[in-house]
Design goal:
It is a single chain. The protein has about 160 residues and is α+β, with helices and mostly antiparallel strands. The protein folds into two domains: about 5-125, no CATH class; about 130-160. It has helices at about 5-30, 110-125; strands spanning about 35-40, 45-55, 55-65, 75-80, 90-100, 100-110. The protein has a six-stranded antiparallel beta sheet. Helix 1 runs antiparallel to helix 2 (about 110-125).
Length: about 160
């Protein structure tokens, strides 16, 4: 295995581990708290989009009021505390017309990107094990049959291992 590829794999392994740890923390915290931001969807006060993180999900809402009673035109941040610990595990794709308003909601559970990142990261951790006794400790080049004391691939000095 070339040294550059080994370094890239190790960087990917640690980046994936960091992302998995962050997603687990966000998943746990979002079960207790929720927060989001909303803004005018089309520049008018009658439609609004929201992105909300809570209940273990990323929620995207789009609301249009046709009666002319809109919301503020500036973005508004909200953060509220939940009184209970709850996580929704499923997907939700909802769209409805209620009187003079139209409402669309898309919920994406946070376990989905967690699994998408954790599976390749676990595979990288599994494959990035210690070198065999006949391999170079730095680049894993096969050193069987070599007479010299230096790895021809990376230049690392060869130390005999038992």
């Amino acid at each position: 295995m070339k040294l550059r590829r080994l370094i890239t794999r190790r960087r990917a392994k640690w980046a994936g581990t960091t992302l998995v740890a962050l997603l687990i923390m966000v998943f746990i915290v979002s079960g207790k708290y929720w927060g989001g931001v909303g803004w005018p969807a089309d520049g008018s006060a009658i439609s609004r989009e929201w992105i909300v993180l809570g209940n273990g999900q990323l929620r995207i809402d789009y609301v249009t009021r046709r009666d002319g009673t809109g919301t503020r035109k500036s973005a508004r941040w909200e953060f509220r505390t939940r009184r209970y610990y709850g996580i929704d595990w499923g997907w939700e794709w909802e769209s409805r017309l209620a009187g003079r308003s139209h409402f669309r909601r898309r919920n994406i559970p946070l376990w989905f990107p967690l699994v998408l990142i954790a599976a390749p990261t676990a595979w990288l951790w599994y494959t990035d094990r210690r070198a065999k006794p006949w391999q170079c400790a730095k680049c894993r080049y096969d050193l069987r049959g070599l007479e010299g004391g230096v790895c021809p691939e990376c230049g690392e000095s060869i130390v005999p291992r038992a």
